[in-house]
Automatic annotation (TrEMBL):
Protein name, as recorded: EARP and GARP complex-interacting protein 1
Domain EIPR1-like beta-propeller: 10-297
Sequence ranges of the WD repeats: 222-258
GO biological process: protein ubiquitination; regulation of cellular localization; regulation of transport
Family the entry assigns: Belongs to the WD repeat EIPR1 family.
Region of interest (Disordered), residue spans: 308-332
SUPFAM superfamilies: Putative isomerase YbhE (SSF101908)
Subunit note: Interacts with two multisubunit tethering complexes: EARP composed of VPS50, VPS51, VPS52 and VPS53 subunits and GARP complex composed of VPS51, VPS52, VPS53 and VPS54 subunits. Interacts with SNAP29.
GO cellular component labels: Golgi apparatus
Keyword Repeat part of the UniProt annotation: yes
Record-linked PROSITE patterns: WD_REPEATS_1, WD_REPEATS_2, WD_REPEATS_REGION
Amino acid sequence: HLPRPPKVLGLQARALTPQTAETDAIRFLVGTQSLKYDNQIHIIDFDDENNIINKNVLLHQVGEIWHISASPADKGVLATCYNRTSDSKVLTCAAVWRMPKELESGSHESPDDSSSTAQTLELLCHLDNTAHGNMACVMWEPMGDGKKIISLADNHILLWDLQESSSQAVLASSASLEGKGQLRFTSGRWSPHHNCTQVATASDTTLRGWDTRSMSQIYCIENAHGQLVRDLDFNPNKQYYLASCGDDCKVKFWDTRNVTEPVKTLEEHSHWVWNVRYNHSHDQLVLTGSSDSRVILSNMVSISSEPFGHLVDDDDISDQEDHRSEEKSKEPLQDNVIATYEEHEDSVYAVDWSSADPWLFASLSYDGRLVINRVPRALKYHILL
C-alpha cells in the first residue's frame, strides 16, 4: 500500500506529465495553477524502495499552467501552456523550457525539506501564437529527437520545428478547422504508429485524425460524445485503436477504420471524464480520471492486443499442458473494472502512467493532491504469466 500523499503541491494544479525521456527513475512533472501566487513546476520523484515522494520546485512565473508535456529525447526539456494577461486580455501562450542540469535526474532531498529554494527555468523559445489564438496543448513527436512539436491553438493545428538547441521554433506547416460555430481544439494526441505521421484532435463533440505530412484530415468522428470531448489516447499496440472521454461521463474506444460506432463504451464515472490513458506496455490497462474525484483502472482485455490472455508458443508447452492452454485460449477474457481509487477529494484533472515503471501511475486533483498507485500485484502476475 503506497503512502497517501498530503496535498503535496500546496497550490491548485491540473497539469501532469511523466518525464518521458526518463526510463529508469520514476519521475513526474506537475504544473500549478494559482492566480494569487507565482506558479511552479514540481519535479516529483517517487522513491520506490522507501515509498517516499521527493520533490524539487522550479519557478514558472509567467502564468498559471494549463498543460505540461515533456520532451521524448531530452530529460531536461519540457513545454507548458500558460495564461498571460496583457492589455487586460488573457491569452494562453506556449513555451519550451529547460530545467537546471542538476535537476534532470531528480534529487534525494528529504521530502519535508522546506529550506530548499525554488530554482528557475531557462526559456528556450516561445511558440509564437499571436496570429493563432489560445494554446490548448503541446504534443511532442513520439519516439522523436525532441525537435518536432505540434500545438493546438483555437482552431489551428500547428507543426513546429525546434531549431538547433531549441532556441527558436519555426512554424513548418499548419491546418485549420473550417465550419460554423465555436471551433476550438480542446486536446490532441500524436500517434506512435504510421511512422508518427498521424495526430488525433478533439474539438467540441468531434474527434478528427490528421496526416502531419499534408496537414489534411483523414477521418472524422462526429458526435463521438454527447457533450464536449475532454481527452483521447492511442492504443500503443493496435494502430487503429483510440480511446476518448468527455463530459457525457463516458469513455469510448474507436477503430478509426470504421467510425460509425464505438467498439466499446465504458460508463463507470458519474461526472465529466477529464483524462484517459492507455498503459504503454499492456494496452488492456486503461486509466481514467474524473470530476467525480475518482480514478478508475479498467481491464479492457477484449479489445486489447492480447484478447485471449498471454498466449504461449506451442514449443513451450509439454503434452500434459497442451490441454490446459487450449482451454485458456478459446474464450476472450472479460473486461472489468480492476480498481476504483478514492483518495482524491476534488476533481481529478490528470492521470498518467510512469515512463519508467509500467505498473505505476499518478493522479492529480485540483486541490494539489498528487497520488501514486500501482496496478494490483495479482493482476500484474496474471498479465505476465
